[in-house]
Structures are given as C-alpha cells and as structure tokens.
What we know:
Blueprint: H1 4-9, H2 13-22, H3 32-43, H4 46-59, H5 63-72, E1 76-78, H6 79-86, H7 94-100, H8 109-114, E2 120-124, E3 131-135, E4 150-153, E5 156-159, E6 169-170, H9 175-189, E7 194-195, E8 198-199, H10 201-208, H11 220-235, E9 239-241, E10 247-249, H12 251-258, H13 262-274, H14 281-284, E11 288-290, H15 301-312, E12 320-322, H16 323-333, E13 349-351, H17 364-377, H18 379-382, E14 386-389, E15 398-401, H19 403-408, E16 425-426, E17 431-434, H20 440-449, E18 451-454, E19 459-462, H21 465-473, H22 478-488, H23 494-505
Antiparallel strand pairs: 1-3, 2-3, 4-5, 6-14, 7-8, 9-10, 11-13, 12-15, 14-15, 16-17, 17-19, 18-19
Amino acid sequence: MPTTVQMLTDYPDELLEVIAEQRSASPEGSTHAQMVEALAAELTNPTSVHYAYDDANDENPLVQEAVEALLKAGGEMAESKFSKEFGSIRQMGPAKMKREGPWLNPESVAEVLYYLGLVGRTFRGAGAHAHTVIYLPSDVAPWLPRKQADVVVDGLAIPTLPPPPRSRTINADDSFLEDAGALLGFLTSDSLRLDAGGPNSEDIDRFVQRLQLPFDDTMPEQAVRLALLLHLANRLGWLRRAEGGTVVLTGNRVREFLDKTRAEQRQALFHAWHSSQEWNDLCRTPGLECDFAASPAHNDPMQTRANVLAQLGRLQPSGWYSINAVVALFREFEPNFQRPTGRHDEWQIRQSGTGEALVGIEHWDAVEGALLRFLLRGPLHWLGAVDLAEPAAGDDWLMSLTAWGARWLGMEVAQPHEGGHRPLQVREDFAVLLPLGASLYDRFRVERFAQWQSSYPQYVYQINQRSLRRAVEGGLAAAQILSFLESRTPRIPERVAAALQKFQAAPPAADGATAPAAPPTAGAA
C-alpha cells in the first residue's frame, strides 16, 4: 500500500489544505513537496490517527465497519466492491471542490474517510485488468483500532481506553533532544565548572535558561530531568574534564552524534538510559530516598529497566491505558520486577520529608508503584517513548506507547514519518533564527559564530563582533560562516553578507581590536 507521502503527492494544494483543516494540522512549507512532507508527518502521528478515527465514527457509525473491512482485506479493496457497501468518492477538480465543499456534507463513508486523509484512491493493474482501489496508507493502518481491544498479558486483560481529549494529551516530543543540543551549544560558547559537589550552580543557572521549558528548581521532576540530561551526555562520551576543573566537549564523540539522523539521535539517548548501570531510577524517584550504605543489598537499575520494558512491550502500540491499571498488572504478575530474591525487607528506602522507612511488601505501592509511575511520566516520556494524558476529575493519568517507543521495545511497527527541516533565517539586524526541529548539527555550527538569545518558540542567535572574534579564534573564518549561511537559507540580507565579507578582509588583530564595518557589538541588538 502507498505511504501517506505517496498518497498526498498527487493531491492539489487545495485538497491538502482541506485535509489539514479537517485534521487540525498546521503544516508549513514554501513548496508543494515541503507541505506534503510536513502534513504527512502530522497525519501519521498515532494520536492524530486515533482522533481522526473517532471524529469519523461520530460523523458516520459505518466508519468502523469500513475500516475493519479494509484491514481484513489487507489494507485495500477494489473500489467497485468498497463503494457498494460504503459509497464512492466524488471526483472533482480544485475549483469545483472549493465551490461545493464535499467535506462539509460528505455523501458516503468513503468521503468521510477520504477528506480526513485516512484512505486514498489509486490504480492497480494495466490494460483490461486496470482498476481503482481504496486503500489505507501503510503508515496509517498500524494505528487504527482493531477489534481486539484488550491485550492479555499472562492472563490479565488490560483494556485499552478511548483516546483522551486533545486538551488533556501531553504528546512526547523532542524537547529532551533539543535540550541535549542546547547543552552542546552552551559548552561551545560558555563554561561549566565542576565543584566538589558537582556542576557549579552559577553555570547551571545560566545553562537552564536555554532549556525548552522554564526551569524551576523547586520542582523535583525538573531537577531529575536535568540530572538525566547531564548523565546521558557524559555516558555518550561528550564530556571530559579539562585542567582547571571545567567541562569541555570531546570533539569526535560529539561529531559522531551530530552526524546521526534525528531518529538515530533519539534512539541513542534512549539506549544510553536503557543500558546505564550508573543511573538509578529508584533513587531518583521523587519522594523516595535510598540508603543502600546501611545494607549490602541493593537494586540493579539496568535489570529493573529491562524487566519493566519487557512488560510494556506487550501492550498495544498507540493504545491508551490507565497508569493505575499498568501498575496493577505489575503488582499482580510481576511484583518482584526489581527484587529478584523476592524479599522486600532488604533495602533501606525512606519517604522523603518524613524519613519513614518503607520496608516490607506492605509498602509495595509506595516504592515499586512510585517507581513505575515515575518511569512512565518521567524518563520514558522525556525520551519520547510514551505519550501521556492528564487526569480529569476522578480519572487517572493515561499512557500510550509512541511509534518510536514501540520500535525501541522491539515491536514491528512502521517507522514514523519525519517532516522535512525548515530553513533557518537571517534577519537585517544580524539575528539568526532556527525553528524547533532544525538539525542539531546546524544549530551547533551557529553556536560557533553567534551568541544565543532565546530558545522558545524558536532558537534566536545574534551575530556580533564578540561572537565573530570567538569564531575566528576557534579557527572559523568569516568566509566559512557566509558559505554555511548561504547553504542553509534562501536569502541573506545584503548588509549581513557585506559585513561578513569586510570582517573576512580585516579580521580582528591579536589584541582583540574590532574589524571596521563589523556587525553590531554585543548587546547592541
């Protein structure tokens, strides 16, 4: 079956706009191909597929039957057969389509699905055997609900739940990966000192200003997320301690990571966490304190993660589950997932604040339950493996395995479609703007010659005399900067290009004197 990109490629822009509006998508692109790539990335998101399917069901109760028929037939059916049961798709050009608005009053189940981008229409065969078929795109079909709504794990049925309202959904995103790029950039242009107790607090205060979300050190989860980011950066070999107790980057390991595709970068972060023996999720769980010094027995963080992920790997990808139900599964069938001896009186775990000893099976929910909830709402969500939904009144938090999470857990699901990168922008005031999702390598390069200004809703950097002097001292010529910018943006303002050319012709002297006609001084913008 064709993919969503293949389906959309032959559609006129007017139809793409209709489908985007129907799916509450906002693809960006200056060309048809870019718009197709961006829209396909949104349409194939498992949560978006679920929402569209529910919307279609609300509009026509035969939608479920139509989708099940297509799935049962392997994803496609001859249009002549499909239309007998579920109606046809009226064919019309862009002008007639805009005039009549068939998506506003669809005449059949087929049209409901078509204008939501859930089915396509194409040709099969040749000559006398040529015929049209209705199909489910191959990267949409895996996320459509099947009749087997329940997943049975060792005899315990865990019911999937209806997708939560969009207002409650917290989709996993690339903010952790973006923040990893922010750390690399920070260490390129700033300094991180190591004190006796760890990273210098003043340096960390400057770094956290670059994170995607406002950092609040009174929130335990945010402090743990920051610690995990620093741990994974060290585990991936990006960091080394230089003379004077500062942290510097290990060039070859950083380049190796930046050379990866975005999908490979996500997986590298997930694997670094999954395989870390030094990162102890139990002792990082907010509300718990470990005192393993008081006892020779202690946990095995890596084995615990393996046990947890093995069970999560038996859930239905993109299905929504109550976190309480998942915790109940473990308590019923895997109560000793982190205690191979089965003894719950060996470790010294205490409740933060009160100091209460949580020893014994009666404290299972306070220890094991708290750890499971933290893993689902913390590392697994931060790293992109789990979507979440906030509880409504009387409800529980919900979780759903993302497509990436399912793949990392060994499931055979289609690789999610990635939209193309939007170009960076250079403004007349020497500001360089990079959208979220821009290549981490490009952002790392910009860090070498421009000064960071902000990280949200897009990355903003400022080219100034100080940043250019730093670039030259680091071995980067103004001509190289101009060449890079020309390759990454459709237009560079003339005054920016001219200033870089003059800076190249008259670079700063050894004493740091500024070049004539150089960009603004630091702080001028």
